[in-house]
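Posted in: Structural Biology > Protein-Ligand Complexes

Title: Requesting predicted complex, fe (ii) ion in pocket

I'd be grateful if someone could produce the 3D structure tokens for the following input. Sequence and ligand are given below.
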Amino acid sequence: MLKIIVAHPDKEAGAGIVAHLNAQSFQSTLSTTGKDAQKLLSTQNFYAAILHMEIKDHSGYELLNYIKANRPSLRIVITCSATNALLKDDEVMENLVKLGILGVWRPPFALEDLSKIVDSSQNLSFILSKITKQEGQKAEEDVEAKNDDFTSIRIDDFFSGSTVLFDTFVKIGENKYIKILHSGDSFAEERLAKYRQKTEVLYFKSEDRRKYLKILDVLLKKVGKRDDIDDGTKVVMMKNMAQKYVEEISSFGLAPQLLDMGQSLVESMVETVRASPNLIQSLQQMKDFDPTLYSHAYLVSMFSSLVAMQFQWSSPKTLQTLAMASLFHDLGKLDFPKELIGTEVKDLSPENALKYWDHPYMVSRKLSDSKLVDSNVLQIIQQHHEYMDGTGFPKGLKGQKIHPLSRIIVLVNDFCNYLVPRNITPFDAITEMLQIPTTPARYDRQTLFNLCQIFADPEKVKTLTDKADKS
Ligand SMILES: [Fe+2]
Ligand SMILES: [Fe+2]
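-- Reply #1 --
Done. Output follows.
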């Protein structure tokens, strides 16, 4: 549940805001003095702060400075009294905007507006309230629309409750689709079954993707820790969310709301992975990975988290940093022309090869515009192709110069790139990779060992790494 701190000098007015937010499924806490608010901010992680400028005993400005210095990614909405001169001063307003304040509100304001601005991505209850439910299903309908307007999902990965949440299509030709389920329909398995033999994928409109992500985000938070839900379902939900999330970024860039959603996704992933010790078996059985950049991001996040969990030093926060870096590590490739993705580096033109060598930095340049991204995440991404023996790129860094979490991504990245095109199991992939002569020198020994412990026989690694020691 997302936590919000409300700092308001008036107990009654503050309690009103808290009650409203809690009714929207936030978990909010009221502080009536600045000191109290600062104490809470120093000990707890909040998603957003609603800050009244006229709070006493540490003023609103002092709190704001504290937040900017210590909790820079916190979302802040400022409230003040109707007579406060703040809103009339252009310079003050400009500075507040520069500080990344989401909004300044002075009474009278509608509480709904306040929660909407805090949760600027679409709110799930809002989505659901817009759906007009009906008994039964509307007839199927032929639709002509551009392929680019649709986003695909495997039939087997398609979840639906009793009500269909968005229009669902099957493709029958170039730019030709049939709408088989309408938003609001009662779910009809028999209609899906009819198409299951003919196609493996369903489509929905790309404009519904944000809605779909929000739903998955809420669902994942609910089921991630439950042990009565099977791991296979959790794996598929995380896969869908991660893939659609990266697709959404590739269409819209790294908007702040999307970064928030990414944070929420990695939190869910880490919680789920930590709470489900047998998840690995579901991943081990996975085959037929699709070779897109989107699913690559998901696989690297999952396997990296699992490898990192084997280290004693790993904490939920480290795992989240790593999962975030894994999700974003190849976003620099999104600017590549489509036909270049998947082309081997040796087959690229000199100009395109340069672009490729630069992709670890390209993405971090994009992300550094956003104050919301942790500098560790950026560093890990920059080093995700650096090998321990200095033969990697772009800087040819060696050994200890490489961030410990980059050492994980670099191995898992190569592992996924080995595994997917060959369509073999993770067990076979690691066993084969261990036979490649460069393997022991390229990767951090303990990291390699951890990956093997997950999938293969650790003894084999020991033999190989011992050999590397002697050479
Ligand atoms: Fe890469
Ligand atoms: Fe990659």
